[in-house]
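Priority: low. Protein: Thiamine-monophosphate kinase. Input follows.
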Amino acid sequence: MEQSFLAYLRGRTRNLPSVAVGIGDDAAVLNFPGTPEFPSTPESPATPDSADTPCLQQVACTDQIIDGVDFRSDSQPLASIGYKSIAINLSDIAAMGATPTAALVTLTLPSLNATEIAGEVYEGILEACAEFNVAVAGGDLSTYDGPLAISVTLLGTVTAPWLRTGAKEGDAIFVSGSLGGSLSGRHLRPIPRIELANRLRQHVNVNAAIDVSDGFSLDLDRMLASSRVGAELNIEQIPISDAAHAMSKDSNRSPLEHAWSDGEDFELIFTVDESDAAALEELSADDLSVNVTRVGSVVGRTGLWKRITGSKLERVFPQGYVHGETDE
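Result:
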C-alpha cells in the first residue's frame, strides 16, 4: 500500500522551487532562501556562486509510531518508546549524510493518565535529543479515547545530500553494524548512525544511501530501484547479529533469514566507487565508530542477484515489512 500510494502522491504534489528533493527519499531537502532553485546531489551540488562552493540546505523528515503497531505500551518502557521516536528519525537524517538540529514532537495521548504518560515518554525523547545534540523546538499535545501515538518531525542541515538515486554500476555496497533480531529489544533503542555519516564524509564520497527500517533486502532493493540498477551480493558476507542467531533457535528461520528481512535495524546501506571502497576497507571500527561490511557490488541489471557455482547468477528476492499489508 505504502509504495503505491507514494507513487500516486508524487504525481499529485506540485513541484516548488524551494523543494530540492521531495517524496521518495529518506528525507526531504529544502533550499534556504537565496539558494539556487535546483536539486543538490553528491555528483552535482547546488551552489550559490560556483561548483566549488556547496550550498547549505535544510533536511526534514517525519515518522509516526503507534501503540499496538510499532510498540506495546503495556509491556515496554515508555521512556524507551520515546527514545525510539527520535532515534528512527535520526536514522533518516544519517541516511542523507546530514546533521540533525531540531525536533518537533506531537503526542496523541490516551485520556486516562495522559500527563503521567507524556512525562515518561518525554524522558526518553529528551535523553535521545541530549545524546545527539538536538533541540526540541516545539510540537503539540492532544488527548482522546485511543492509543498513544508519537509523531516526530526532525530538521537538519546538509551540503550535497546522499540520495537513493545516486548508486552507479561498479559501486561497492556496504552496510554498517550487524543485522537481524532487532525485535528482541534493540529496536526500542537503536543507534542512529549519525557519527558514522560524519566520519564517512571525512574519508570517502558516498554515492547513495538508505537506512534499514523495513528489512535489509527490501530497503537495499528500494535504493537500487531508485537508481535503476541492481546488485550482485556476497550473501555469506552479510553481517548477522547475535540476536538473530538467538532468535533463530525458536523461530524456524535461519540467522540469515532474520538478517535478510527482520527490519528495524536502523543501520546504513551505502555505495561508494571502487577506489573509495579500497580506502574504506583499510579503516577500523574505531576510525568509523562502527564496523562496515562490503556485501556486494552494483550491477546494471535491476534486481538482487547472487553468484552460484561457476559464473551463473541466481536472482534472490527482497523480503521485509511492507506497510499496509496484513496477514488476513
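Residues 164-316 form a domain with the Phosphoribosyl-aminoimidazole Synthetase; Chain A, domain 2 fold (CATH 3.90.650.10). Residues 46-51 have pLDDT under 50 and may be disordered.
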